[in-house]
Amino acid sequence: MPAARVLIDGPSELVFDYAIPDGLPVLAGCRVRVPLRNKTSTGTVLAVTDHAPADLGFALRPLHSLTDPEPLLTPKLLELARWIADYYACSIESVVRVLLPEAVRTEENAAKTRKAVVLTQLPDEETLDQLAKRAPKQHTILTLLRHVPEQQMPLTDLGNAAGTSVKALVAKGFVQLIDQQVRRDPDADGVDEILPTRDLPLSEEQQTSLDAILSSLETDGGSLASPPSPTRPFLLHGVTGSGKTEVYLQAARHVLEAGRTVLVLVPEISLTPQTVRRFRARFAHIQDQVAVLHSNLSQGERFDEWHRIRKGKARIVIGARSAVFAPLPDLGLILVDEEHENSYKQDQVPRYHGRDVAVLRAHLEGATVVLGSATPSLESWQNALDQKYQLLRLTHRADGQSLPLIRVIDMRLESKKQKSKDTFLSDRLRSAIDDRLAKNEQTILFLNRRGFARSLQCPACGHVCQCPHCAIALTYHRTDDRLICHICGHQAVVPRKCPECKDPSIILQGFGTQKVEDVFHKVFPSARIARIDADALRKKNALRDLLNAFRARKIDLLIGTQMIAKGLHFPNVTLVGILNADIGLHVPDFRAGERVFQLLTQVAGRAGRGSLEGEVIVQTFTPHSPSIQFARHHDFDGFADQELEMRRQFGYPPFARCALLTVRSTHERRAEFTLQTLHRRLKEALPPGIELGEPLPSPLVKAHGQFRFQLILRGPKARALTRHVQQVLDKTPLPEDVTAVFDMDALSF
Ligand code: ADP
Ligand code: ZN
Prior knowledge:
Layout: E1 3-8, E2 15-19, E3 31-36, E4 39-49, E5 65-66, H1 75-87, H2 92-99, H3 102-105, E6 112-119, H4 125-134, H5 136-147, E7 152-154, H6 162-171, E8 175-182, H7 204-217, E9 234-238, H8 244-257, E10 261-265, H9 273-282, E11 290-293, H10 299-310, E12 316-319, E13 331-336, H11 354-365, E14 368-373, H12 378-385, E15 390-394, E16 405-410, H13 411-417, H14 427-439, E17 442-446, E18 456-457, E19 475-477, E20 482-484, E21 491-493, E22 507-508, H15 513-523, E23 529-532, H16 534-538, H17 542-551, E24 557-560, E25 573-578, H18 581-585, H19 592-604, E26 615-620, H20 626-632, H21 636-650, E27 657-665, H22 668-684, E28 691-692, E29 696-703, E30 706-715, H23 718-730, E31 738-744
Parallel strand pairs: 9-14, 9-15, 10-12, 10-13, 11-12, 13-14, 16-26, 17-24, 17-25, 23-24, 25-26
Antiparallel strand pairs: 1-2, 1-4, 3-4, 3-5, 6-7, 6-8, 18-22, 19-20, 20-21, 27-30, 27-31, 28-30, 29-30
Helix pairs in contact: 1-2, 1-11, 4-5, 7-8, 19-20, 20-21
The structure holds adenosine-5'-diphosphate and zinc ion.
Pfam families: DEAD, Helicase_C, PriA_3primeBD, PriA_C, Zn_ribbon_PriA
Family: Belongs to the helicase family. PriA subfamily.
InterPro entries: DEAD/DEAH_box_helicase_dom, Helicase_ATP-bd, Helicase_C-like, P-loop_NTPase, PriA, PriA_3primeBD, PriA_3primeBD_sf, PriA_C
């Protein structure tokens, strides 16, 4: 007898086998109703076998029924789920939960219907005349229905008192009552009016890129619609403003016209409104085939959008990370915009990387995937160097303008001049802002957000205390007043004066956005200043309103963290300032240099996007750092060369895989002790090639009432790392109030 393995809905990740009753077409990916103890529950079929295991010793209970006649998950999506569970060392249940979001699983969210009245037969003139005299209400209803599209309308539109009249009309056989499905349309209100756009004539580089992408979609028959065969992923490296989006748009159009579907991933919908708007505008003629998956869709809207996608009604889907699982049939093209962005990595279980999952999904589905960025991640770049990815390049701005001039201000000299340890406004930046205010042009100021780790820097010479073994900044630990390396555990005393220049003013870095805003209000009393930080994102529409006000030039000076460096386009912004380029450089993370390079390049791309020339001012205590110098010269290749050399030398990604194991508990000692135990066990049978870091307090040692301790693992192969950690975790029972979190390809440490 065939059996189904069913993942029961609910938080406890229960999986049971059920017998499949004769004739019930149950397939993997179907949603089913099953008996569970003495109740009925719902679940998802993970797999179907022809024969239930014979040696069970008891009969399987049969499942009750299907909630939906067709499987909701395709075999390919289930395969993707299995891969993710394996690679990131998490349960398949946790992945299925992401594939079939709660909104889709919950039966209460099922498609909404309403009663509608349909005209079935119009009475002859005579009867109509009689009705007009004796039952004027019935007459009115019939007349209304004659003139509406499809001759049907919602019952409620006929007014409260219509019930009896409709009943009478039904009895006479003139109308019928039906259940009409209503789409809960997220765009029903609130989407700004969109002017349709058409393809632009492409530059030579754009055309070459587009041709390459399209030819990968063609197979022997020369038709885009032919059966798929996997191709190498494309890495589209285009400087800011080079017209990558135009390439995406035209590629998407071709794929849609060939009858296949398109998935567009962006780092975060609310921070990339322009990209979304450009897709909507280009596909305005097939507007109802475009689905934008925001985080603030209601449950019902999410349910409807998901099913529209699955049924092939929405054929182009734009969304952030989790949209990579959108159930598009006949997927032809996946576009990953700003592929280097960290927000593609999920920071909860399952801790997948949206870009990497996109590459795998494209492979499984025979779709083409394009990863685009002005500052590709070094992982993707190395893949291009190794010919695993195919490199496409756009080297010029599409509007023919030159890239903005980047000025680097040496803050060591400024702090001497201003005789202050924590100065953050140089004379050069101050006069540049004054100049913009006078000309009625706009300025964006970036404040590099500090992580939780704090490092020591000398304001006189710029020296930062670094680990001699790991090439990362040492982190200051207040509790024992020491500097510690977060990778190898190396410890150092806190110097009372700078080890390099002997200046006694060595300080902990950092100042907050609030303080910056206060100072700017004093220095520029007439300027209209606004600040964007994490709070702005929390309130619905707050960010959108602020950005609209800025676009409408109601704000002169916008202060924000790096989160506003992405994809914004303001023609009137001619000055971009970076207040503290260093902070990001000295977080205890081997990707620090890469992040600063990305930030500077992206930020510089915000200046001079219109007809006005742009200027960028970067304030730093380490003006000679390679990240700053290469960004200043818009030299990605140069930066990548030297950064990859460092990564190779110290054994960091992309030349090794790196994972983080964190242990959390409300009980500090227990967390620490558990991690030490795990460390010991990991060490006992350490496979060759794997490097095991020391157990240490996390940079953010206490959060949400829990203490955190962590260790870093490195090795040449992800699987070997995962397997080793999984084995140790499996045989190490954790105390009840302790959790262990494994993060493969971790991005923050
Ligand atoms: P990117 O995505 O690489 O940052 P965009 O796609 O935003 O670049 O392009 C920058 C600007 O150049 C946009 O205003 C876009 O409309 C324009 N643009 C892009 N391609 C062309 C083209 N082939 N001809 C004219 N303008 C173009
Ligand atoms: Zn170290």
